[in-house]
Design goal:
mainly alpha
């Protein structure tokens, strides 16, 4: 949304007039989006952990999660959100249409990846969503053995984000603004 909103409202024109090197604009948007993604991801993970803990405590259910698992969830979730924000900025630069970019990413994560993880777990574990889950310490319904180790998930998700940003930067540099 950081770039598609500007394209939609036409404010990208003065941005590119002030900073003609479009790759620099994309890089700044990726940095800002990643920072915002990390903050929102950390808040979301903390809220989920707090609400889940409170719900279990209210029902008298003992929580068997170690502090290391909680730290992985918080830090890994924030890092995954930051990388997804960067990936989304790259996809937005390619697609340029805000609704199309958001719907495309949602269809990918909620439909395509779910089908792959459920039917071809050996392939599905290499998708961006599964990589983010591995980074945050998620356990899929098929079992944790279907996920990558967190470090590999982080590297793979970073590679997806870098590829999307690079493609978005190239496409933006070659495309008319109007």
């Amino acid at each position: 949304m950081s770039i598609t909103g500007e394209i939609r409202h036409g404010t990208i024109r003065p941005t590119f007039l002030i900073t003609p090197k479009r790759a620099r604009v994309i890089a700044a948007k990726v940095g800002a989006s990643a920072l915002a993604g990390a903050v929102v991801g950390l808040l979301a993970e903390a809220l989920a952990a707090g609400a889940g803990s409170a719900g279990f405590a209210a029902r008298g259910i003992h929580i068997a999660i170690s502090t290391g698992d909680i730290a992985q969830m918080l830090i890994g979730g924030a890092a995954a959100a930051a990388l997804w924000a960067a990936l989304g900025t790259g996809v937005g630069a390619i697609v340029r249409n805000q609704v199309g970019a958001v719907i495309g990413l949602c269809v990918w994560v909620l439909l395509v990846e779910t089908i792959l993880i459920g039917n071809l777990p050996s392939v599905g574990k290499f998708t961006p969503g599964a990589s983010a889950g591995a980074l945050a310490g998620a356990i899929q319904t098929q079992g944790a053995t279907n996920l990558l180790v967190p470090a590999l998930g982080a590297l793979l998700l970073a590679a997806y984000a870098a590829a999307a940003v690079a493609a978005g930067s190239i496409v933006t540099a070659r495309r008319d603004v109007g």
